[in-house]
Amino acid sequence: MNVIVCAKQVPNTNEVRIDPVKGTLIRDGVPSILNPDDANALEEALKLKDENPETKVTVISMGPDQAKEMLRECLAMGADEAILLSDRAFGGSDTYTTSNAISSAIRKIGDYDIIFCGRQAIDGDTAQVGPQIAEKLDVPQVTYMQEFKLEGDEVTVQRQLEDGYELIRVKTPVMLTAVKELNEPRYMTMDGIYRAYETEIPVWGIHDVDVEPAQVGLKASPTNVYRSFTPEPKGKGVMIEGKTNQEKVDSLMARLKEKHII
Ligand SMILES: Cc1cc2nc3c(=O)[nH]c(=O)nc-3n(C[C@H](O)[C@H](O)[C@H](O)COP(=O)(O)OP(=O)(O)OC[C@H]3O[C@@H](n4cnc5c(N)ncnc54)[C@H](O)[C@@H]3O)c2cc1C
Question: pTM, whole model, 2 decimals?
């Protein structure tokens, strides 16, 4: 069985601030990490490998050269191969063109049974790339996977909802997006770390995959970020005082009337 995991290197958003003038992320000095949902996606792939050592897990990422660091972490966790999609021509891609490039790379890898993605990346936050990859490869997709079972060529997925879950059965090949409730990602092992630094990470550029320059990059991206900003902090809340509940209710009603809310 061949399993592909799409993993994105993201800035650790706990430490990211937005430049108030330019409206862009201040990335300087911010450590980059494996996108958390993608760690869950990788863990599920590695569990399949634990059950059947013949399973091959390939991790693919599109990003700058420094994403190799994150790919080495994936290798150290137990992935067999890692591929970096990197080219100036991919720069400025929105989700549509990102998924054009990634789906072409997956087509080049060829023989795959399951594509695991994270539900969403913590920087872009759109949750669009996984579903778009599935569309472009013309394979079924199940998003928000919180439980996964494989029997033969049939996958049973619990799909997380706000107030419950859906149980979905689907045949491979399939694209699934993972949420954090799916599993607890494993740590890297010493052996894995050693192997990760021995393993060559091929870099595929635009000429290595079947995409035209007109399908990737900033110019080909149909969406544009018009502005990003941090919302102004709201003013301090008002505490409704009163000795009894009735006094507090009366005070609240008086304020609501004063503001013509009721
Ligand atoms: C107009 C526009 C211009 C942009 N320009 C730039 C730019 O110049 N530089 C830049 O870095 N970003 C840029 N971005 C952001 C970039 O489009 C997104 O980072 C990227 O498309 C992924 O979207 P997302 O972060 O919302 O991922 P989501 O859709 O939330 O991710 C879902 C899942 O898809 C997979 N995935 C997503 N991205 C990747 C990836 N790169 N590699 C492997 N798997 C992935 C992961 O499994 C992830 O968990 C731009 C976005 C827009 C809209």
Answer: 0.87
